[in-house]
Design a protein that fits this description.
about 325 residues; three-stranded mixed β-sheet; alpha/beta; Protocatechuate 4,5-dioxygenase, Chain B
């Protein structure tokens, strides 16, 4: 099986932020390049490696990794709701292969996914069920976090298994880079927030979900104006991560600790775990090269925002 990778930041604010025209044009061009790359590759299967934002996974039981045998999008922040086209046999085969490699991965027979998983599908295809997709959840929001070495090994295991199949597989890694949105933590949660983090308040009433989403939208507006009390973006940290990922040797990331990542790049910078897993999966199939790279710290989106594409090595240079 031939592998390729689209690694992209996501943001629930893409449809809600008032972006300058120049920035909108930049993002449109980056997404157009992603669509061109995916169209030219024409995958038979997508493996989506994504986080969750306390919409499908909760502290009632929080696995470090989970593979879905079936999945449904909840439709938060205006993303599309509905079933994903998950080929259960391929999902089961992937889970069994990862377990055989000694990586403890959970499985879900009915995974709930949010904008983190489906926004890239919408950007690329305008649909969440345009292609068969196997969803892989990587916990990136709820401490304690598994070491990055285990994330890398998960990706390598995924890549080895996919490399032995027939056809073309597109890996989509969704998340990051540096950002620190207003996500409650157990240490500071109110009683109501604690119920949400545990999954005791699910499904959220429409008014509660609307209030939760508006809080993020308001924080982004204040952050762009320089008045929000959240951690700043970390462009140097982002660029160093992108450099390591492009190098093909991800082992230097093994020493990055969760505490260090949060201190340097924000509590939600852990979403780069999806990028590490995706690049590790691609690397397991052989040397690769980054074909396209876009990066910009975007305060209106509370994100160090990046889009990269990568494929087996050739003489192509990043554009």
């Amino acid at each position: 099986m031939t592998l390729a990778l689209l690694a992209t930041s996501h943001s629930p604010l893409l449809e809600h932020a008032d972006l300058p025209a120049e920035l909108t044009a930049e993002l449109d061009a980056a997404f157009a390049e992603a669509r061109r790359f995916v169209r030219d590759f024409d995958p038979d299967l997508i493996v989506s490696i994504a986080p969750d934002h306390y919409n499908g996974f909760f502290y009632r039981l929080m696995p470090p990794f989970c593979i879905g045998y079936a999945a449904e999008s909840i439709g938060d922040y205006g993303s599309r709701a509905g079933r994903l086209d998950v080929p259960e046999d391929l999902a089961r085969g992937l889970a069994e292969a990862v377990l055989d490699d000694g990586i403890d991965v959970a499985v879900s027979l009915d995974m709930q996914v949010d904008h983190g998983a489906v926004q890239p599908l919408e950007i690329v295809y305008g649909d969440i069920a345009a292609k068969p997709v196997v969803p892989v959840f990587v916990n990136s929001v709820a401490p304690p976090f598994t070491p990055l070495r285990r994330v890398r090994l998960l990706g390598e295991s995924i890549g080895r298994h996919l490399g032995g199949l027939a056809g073309r597989v597109l890996l989509i890694s969704s998340g990051g880079l540096s950002h620190d949105p207003p996500v409650p933590t157990l240490a500071t949660a109110t009683a109501e927030q604690r119920r949400m983090l545990l999954g005791q308040a699910v499904p959220l009433p429409p008014e509660a979900r609307a209030a939760r989403q508006q809080r993020v939208i308001d924080t982004a507006r204040d952050f762009a104006a320089g008045t929000a009390a959240i951690q700043d973006l970390a462009p140097e940290w982002d660029r160093e991560l992108l450099r390591v990922l492009a190098s093909g040797d991800l082992t230097p990331l093994d020493s990055w600790t969760p505490a260090e990542m949060a201190r340097a790049a924000g509590n939600s910078a852990h979403e780069v775990r999806t990028w590490i897993a995706g690049y590790a999966a691609l690397g397991a199939a052989g040397p690769y090269s980054v074909r396209y790279r876009y990066y910009r710290p975007i305060r209106e989106l509370i994100a160090g925002f990046a889009v990269t594409t990568a494929a087996p090595a050739c003489r192509c240079r990043p554009r």
